[in-house]
Amino acid sequence: MAAASDPVELSAPRGPARPAPPPTRFHRVHGANIRVDPTGTRATRVESFAHGVCFSSEPLAPGQLFLVEIEEKELGWCGHLRLGLTALDPASLAAVPEFSLPDLVSLGHTWVFAITRHHNRVPQEGHPETEAAAPSRPPTLLVEPYLCIEQFRIPRDRLVGRSRPGLYSHLLDQLYELNVLPPTARHSRLGVLFCPLPDGTADMHIVINGEDMGPSAKGLPAAQPLYAVVDVFASTKSVRLVQLEYGLPSLQTLCRLVIQRSVVHRLAIDGLHLPKGLKDFCKYE
């Protein structure tokens, strides 16, 4: 892992080409009630409301966003997804704790938070805690191609959740883009990353539907391997990983963006003279 003084700007759109991180996957070590699909990209809690802790298969690189989409919800439980980072190697755990909060956190070197829109933002020095709410949404959100978090820039293209194609999907998609739905709504996209600082520590940031919630934790050990933690807890039943393109977008992505911007409604894509695979990619991704 790169030192804090020489961060690898995976998400910077300009400058010399840098190696992209490998696709994100879930670790083979996880909670007792979790089932990970054969691709390692979907985690489902099959019973109860607990024992749903998952980890990234590899430590994250600086600025690498571990992004999940909430695929399924389950009624009857109180509580939602929890997200964060740990310096503990999942393979070294004698047993995966029942809960990320407080069990995993109590083991030390772990920073996990329950997801809310104005959660756990670290107060800035010289400002009262009441001023530490999540930053207001910039007016350029829907036109700026990158989300800027400290020294990193992340392509916005896949950060925002989307509804399934349907009669009202064009209206629902706007609610995801404006981030006015509950942060743990079905199809919301939530991610975590860390940003190294010159003093050798790092800030942890949580991203909700393309909006940076600000530093959720400070003083993380940037030189140590940091794994993502996803607790598929209570009303959150299943999540899937969303892969990001760092650097220049692929030709496939560029084609999708042109097609999506050329139609009024995603259902109109079905009427285009395009291969079925490309239509499905434009409608669902």
What does this entry show, briefly?
With 285 residues, the protein is an alpha+beta fold.
Model description:
- There is one protein chain.
- The protein is globular and about 55 Å long.
- Helices cover 13% and strands 26% of the residues.
- It has 285 residues and is of the alpha+beta class.
- Helix 3 packs across helix 4 (276-284).
- The chain has 2 domains: 26-121 and 139-246, Sandwich (Jelly Rolls); 250-284.
- It has 4 helices and 13 strands.
- Strand 7 and strand 8 form a beta hairpin.
- The strands form 3 sheets. It has a 7-stranded antiparallel sheet with strand order 1-2-13-4-9-10-11, with no helix packed on it.
- GO terms for molecular function: ubiquitin protein ligase activity.
First-last Cα distance: 31 Å
The biggest beta sheet is recorded as: 7 strands, antiparallel
Low-confidence stretches: 1-9, 12-17, 129-143
CATH architecture of the largest domain: Sandwich
> What is the C-level CATH assignment of the largest domain?
Mainly Beta
Oligomer: single chain
CATH topology of the largest domain: Jelly Rolls
The count of helical stretches stands at: 4
Strand content: 25-35%
- What order do the SSEs take from the amino end to the carboxyl end, as H and E? EEEEEHEEEHEEEEEHH
By CATH, the superfamily of the largest domain comes out as SPRY domain
Which structural category fits the helices and strands? Answer: alpha+beta
